[in-house]
Amino acid sequence: MTAQIIDGKAFAAGLGDRIAEKAATFTEKAGRAPGLAVVLVGSDPASEIYVRSKGRMARKLGMESFEHTLPEDTTQETLMDLVAQLNADETVDGILVQLPLPRHLDSLSVIEAIDPAKDVDGLHPLSAGYLTSGLPGLVSCTPLGCLMLLKDQLGSLSGLDAIVVGRSILVGKPMAQLLLAENCTVTMAHSRTADLPEKVGKADIVVAAVGQAEMIKGEWIKEGATVIDVGTSRVIRDGEKHLVGDVDFASAATRARAITPVPGGVGPMTIMTLMHNTLIAAYRRKG
Ligand code: GUN
């Protein structure tokens, strides 16, 4: 079998068109555009790039982007004050505090200070609780993007065996909850899971989010499975830098039915689901 390559970039572009249309309708009705506030503390070059691209995408889709860059030595109090100010600002629908924060800051307190109605990152413990309880809330962007790709590929996921490799709050745990809500039978695997190849080999859906370059081998994959690779690791091969996922793409593509590439699979979806969440938050807050 040669896998279909899942084009996350194309899917994200289509989703972006639909979001832009709905953002325009919101703007017409509300008299203001949906607003996304992104907070960056410090000057980590990778984070600066992410934050800039989030702002650019928000504006492209007809949303308002509020970008707050604070110095590396910002105090907890200053950051908490900014979050409180954004919570109170009627023109702000979504708040994202870029992680990781500098080490002297307490990330959890900052996340907990965000109004859950504006938690477009889905990181607030209440957002996680809503998801687990099957209640409407905002869902973390990366797993939401993975789910959209899976449903586009497979239609109904009901009854399928899924394995999520990785148990982070940002990806693994919400991903497992989303798949469970779609009536999958979900195995949550992680770095200490015994007999991982055997467990991966039973799954119709594999979501890899462990952050270890090419750890999941093609021969582990069940023939005809759908593989979603969240990992992005930089490796040097033949003296050149490459971006690779958590799955050994070349060997997995000979067994899977469909697979996301790295780059160009899950990555482009994450920023678009952030825009999706901002739009949802805007409509719910107006509603
Ligand atoms: N840093 C890397 N990914 C993310 C994300 O999804 N949300 C936030 N807030 N920070 C990140």
From TrEMBL:
Residues 6-121 form the Tetrahydrofolate dehydrogenase/cyclohydrolase catalytic domain. One of its GO terms (cellular component) is cytosol. Gene3D superfamilies: Leucine Dehydrogenase, chain A, domain 1, NAD(P)-binding Rossmann-like Domain. Homodimer. HAMAP family: THF_DHG_CYH (MF_01576). Catalyzes the oxidation of 5,10-methylenetetrahydrofolate to 5,10-methenyltetrahydrofolate and then the hydrolysis of 5,10-methenyltetrahydrofolate to 10-formyltetrahydrofolate. This is Bifunctional protein FolD. It comes from Celeribacter ethanolicus.
